[in-house]
Specification:
By secondary structure, the chain is α+β, with helices and mostly antiparallel strands. The protein is built from 15 helices and eight strands. A hairpin with a 3-residue loop joins strand 5 and strand 6.
């Protein structure tokens, strides 16, 4: 009688097993909990991948930022007319760029810094007149015995100078510090010097430094659209005069010329900011993942909780496996309705998942 041959069992591919487990962690909390028995490197790799995915929206956002949005998004607030006047009135002031540094003819520049009242100021200004209503006291009527006529007033219209753009040269002073002060100090605003109330108008401002330019939009009211954190350098413009760079080509406006300059000047800053803030976001994501593992450990410490046998490291591994799904959901930041939630989607989704896990898979039995 022939011997029965043993039936060979097919070995499952380990890679497919791990892939299947990983996919199940995206929607199954029980699968995440079962991952506590895995070796240390599996959950750590998942946590690192989740942190990197959570950083993608921030990185892409900074790398795709357009410097020209300063002019093209929203109102230009007198900028276009002011920049045309700036090009025309300061064309005889030398502004040469060599080795990424601007050299300005300070003597010629100071000759341009005079306000409409003939006062020397520290900036070139673009000025225009606007009608302003002024209440004046009504002259006393000597033939009337009524006291009310003395208290009455009359409203008259009067033209008043307004500064639409102030361009400063910071000289040897650090342009970033100089700009920070000018963009936030409304008391020394050029329009305040012309007699307007400080809270009435803030002025469009450009700060020209030796190694960079900073810009800000001024708006009605005390709010200032600050852009001091955006640095536009002169790299790539060696041997040229700033006026030549900013002169519009045929079929271009002065705003188009400035947009081209800002795009080139922002290139190095864009890369620096992208990596800087991506690194910050990566560190925050890693911290959040660790804290969620700690939260699981704390939630299972109840005296009657059957899961209190889980060690701190096992709770961390559960949290690591649970992080991948929220990280992927954080990519919803690329969809317009969620575009403003780049910083919050990942932690918000992660907290929701851990909360749900605590109520279902890690809930103490009654």
């Amino acid at each position: 009688m022939a011997k029965a041959k043993p039936i060979k069992q097919k070995k499952q591919n380990k890679f497919l097993q791990k892939l299947k487990f990983l996919l199940k962690t995206l929607f199954s909390n029980d699968t995440c909990v079962s991952g506590r028995e895995h070796k240390w490197y599996g959950p750590i790799i998942v946590a690192i991948v989740a942190a990197l995915i959570a950083t993608i929206p921030t990185m892409v956002g900074y790398f795709t930022t357009k410097a020209s949005d300063f002019f093209t998004s929203g109102y230009s607030y007198d900028y276009e007319n002011a920049l045309v006047a700036f090009q025309k009135e300061t064309s005889d002031v030398s502004m040469k760029i060599e080795n990424g540094s601007l050299t300005l003819d300070e003597a010629a520049w100071k000759g341009k810094c005079v306000n409409p009242n003939g006062k020397d100021v520290s900036y070139w200004g673009y000025y225009y007149k606007v009608p302003v209503s002024i209440t004046e006291e009504k002259p006393k009527d000597e033939n009337s015995s009524s006291s009310s006529s003395q208290a009455a007033g009359i409203i008259t219209a009067k033209d008043q100078w307004r500064c639409g753009l102030a361009v400063y040269y910071s000289g040897d002073e650090n342009p970033y510090k100089f700009a920070s002060n000018k963009f936030s100090n409304l008391l020394n605003d050029p329009n305040a010097e012309l007699g307007q109330a400080p809270e009435s108008y803030s002025t469009n401002t450009i700060v020209i430094g030796k190694d960079a330019i900073y810009l800000a939009k001024g708006v009605k009211g005390s709010q200032v659209v600050k852009n001091v954190q955006v640095k536009y350098d002169y790299k790539g413009f060696d041997g040229k005069d700033l006026h030549t760079i900013l002169t519009p080509a045929e079929n271009q406006t002065v705003i188009d010329a400035w947009c081209n300059f800002l795009e080139n000047g922002y290139a190095s800053t864009r890369v620096t900011l992208a990596w800087e803030y991506s690194g910050i976001m990566l560190a925050i994501s890693v911290g959040i993942i660790f804290l969620m593992g700690l939260l699981i450990f704390i939630m299972t410490r109840g005296k009657n909780n059957p899961f209190r046998i889980y060690t701190f490291w096992q709770c961390q591994k559960i949290g690591y496996y649970a992080s991948l799904c929220p990280a992927l959901l954080g990519l919803l930041a690329f969809i317009p309705p969620f575009a403003g939630m780049t910083m919050f989607l990942f932690p918000m989704m992660y907290i929701l998942r851990i909360t749900w896990m605590s109520m279902r898979s890690l809930r103490p039995q009654a």
